[in-house]
Every structure is written in C-alpha cells, then in structure tokens.
Amino acid sequence: xxxxxxSIGEMLTASVPMVRTLNLEFVETSAERAVLRLPDQxxxxxxxxxxxxxxxxxxxxxxxxxxxxxxxxxxxxxxVPLAVRAEIGYRKVAKGVIxxxxxxxxxxxxxxxxxxxxxxxxxxxxxxITREDGAVSGEMSITWTLRxxx
Length: 150
Prior knowledge:
Elements: H1 8-15, H2 17-21, E1 25-29, E2 34-38, H3 53-72, E3 79-90, E4 98-104, H4 108-116, E5 122-131, E6 136-148
Antiparallel strand pairs: 1-2, 2-4, 3-6, 4-5, 5-6
C-alpha cells in the first residue's frame, strides 16, 4: 500500500501468529477477492504427505479474513469483524502448494446499510482451495459478523 499504511497481508502477518507460523503468502487482497497461498512445508504435512487439514482450514479462514478486512476496513472504527461459524469440505487429496481464493457472498453496501441501521450484520464468505494443477481440494463457507463497538 504505502509507507505509512500497511497492506492487508502485512497487517494479518503482524497480528495473527498462525499466519506467520504457516508462512502464508498473500497473492491478492481486494474487496472483491483474496488469494492466499500455503507453501509446501513438510512440518505441516499429514500422514499422506500433503498439507494437514488444520493448515488447510487456517489458510482458508485467513483468506476469508483478508477479504473481510479489505471490504470492511473502513468500518473498523465502529465495528469489529468476528468469525461466527465455518464449514469446510475436503474434496480431493492436496499435495504441494495450495491456494485459497475467497469471495464475499453478500454485497458490501448491504452489510454496511445493516450496520448503519443499528444491526449486527452477518455475511458469508466462500473459499475455494485448489492444488497447483487447478483441482479443487477443498471448499469452505465461513460466516462473519460486524459487531458494533460498545
């Protein structure tokens, strides 16, 4: 971003220890899409030498957090984003580098309008986890809320 304003990736890397632990790479972060990559690291492999399910979950959840911060960063002075619930499905065996791509499932303006009206909006983020060959190895749906500050 700029010398005075850290990027979303820099902010998450600095504030979320698991992002640093797993060495997650921020490929793209915008209000439309967030793309994060998990390098192939034997320390985080499972019993079949692919990324552990917990590492895949963290990758997907982190991608969802990146898009939430990108989309609603201008609301942080009045509300805090919190994950409410998540569901993940593991579709195909993952090996090597994996990538998570997150997209909002509700228009930003609708979420902000609900917050403006005094509500505590909830919205879903859909995340697709892919292998290097493009095959979908997992999918996550995570519901977030913007909790108004007291």
